[in-house]
Amino acid sequence: MKKYDEIHIENLQVFANHGVFPEENKLGQKFLVSAVLYVDTRAAGLQDDLTLSTHYGEVSQFMTSFLQEHTYQLIEAAAEHLTEELLLTFPLLQGISVELKKPWAPVGLPLDTVSVKIERFWHRAYIALGSNLGDKKAYLDMAVESLGEFRGCRVEQVSDYLITAPYGGVEQDDFLNGCLCLRTLLTPEELLSVLHEIEEKAHRKREVRWGPRTLDLDILLYDDLVYDSENLTIPHIEMHLRDFVLEPLSQIAPWVRHPGLGKTVRELAEDLKQKQKK
């Protein structure tokens, strides 16, 4: 994870209506909010220009208004939704840590405060797009548009669409392939679920491995994460073997380094070309 500068807000007092018990929602109580804003302050510091920074006064006002205008039973939910709204509202924020404290929480025991502290960041993911059934371009365009409209996702770049031969030995029509760069607040598993939803909108059927499909969406890279689960492997396990992935990815991210192989996308593409010549 990249190292960012920090702006700290400590123990902002907010009177709000959050809690499991009805009287907490009706009568309200005092909460304390602390936040660490992860930003790049260098330009603002060198030029002494507030417009180049994230205004901690505006952030404090936003947190106060948000917590007073919404009601949650759990402080976990209040912290989660507040953090998301802050990241979506303040464009220079790269990440944020929020601690929401609840003094004198009604647990029937003497204590000063109960708190929840969470940390969330924007992430950068690279997604492979493919289609070889129906209106291929329309399916890819739909995927790009759907991802851009999904809450917590921003499409930053899209490669050209390339016509490529089918992969895997199944006889079928040529593919239209591309890649996009996505800025997202979603976890890898959440992002995978969204991709599957978009594939379902295109009536994707998973009947034959490497077979024809209206829409195929794969997570290639997610920050510099190396991740394995039952449903997902990052980096994509075969991306370095697929020219229909590396060629469009080289258009938008030639310098990005594969966290497992240690080579840039451009280097992986050149390596694959050399292997194919032999």
UniProtKB/TrEMBL annotation:
Keyword vocabulary terms for this entry: ATP-binding, Folate biosynthesis, Kinase, Lyase, Nucleotide-binding, Transferase
Output the superkingdom of the source species: Bacteria
- Catalyzes what? 6-hydroxymethyl-7,8-dihydropterin + ATP = (7,8-dihydropterin-6-yl)methyl diphosphate + AMP + H(+); 7,8-dihydroneopterin = 6-hydroxymethyl-7,8-dihydropterin + glycolaldehyde
Give the matching PROSITE patterns: HPPK
Give, as in the UniProt entry, the pathway in which the protein acts. Answer: Cofactor biosynthesis; tetrahydrofolate biosynthesis; 2-amino-4-hydroxy-6-hydroxymethyl-7,8-dihydropteridine diphosphate from 7,8-dihydroneopterin triphosphate: step 4/4; Cofactor biosynthesis; tetrahydrofolate biosynthesis; 2-amino-4-hydroxy-6-hydroxymethyl-7,8-dihydropteridine diphosphate from 7,8-dihydroneopterin triphosphate: step 3/4
The keyword Lyase belongs to this UniProt entry's keyword annotation? yes
Q: Output one GO BP term.
A: folic acid biosynthetic process
> Which Gene3D superfamilies does the UniProt entry name for this protein?
3.30.1130.10, 7,8-Dihydro-6-hydroxymethylpterin-pyrophosphokinase HPPK
Pfam families membership: FolB, HPPK
Q: Please give the family membership noted in the entry.
A: In the N-terminal section; belongs to the DHNA family. Belongs to the DHNA family.
Q: What is this protein's name?
A: Bifunctional folate synthesis protein
Q: From which organism does this entry originate?
A: Emergencia timonensis
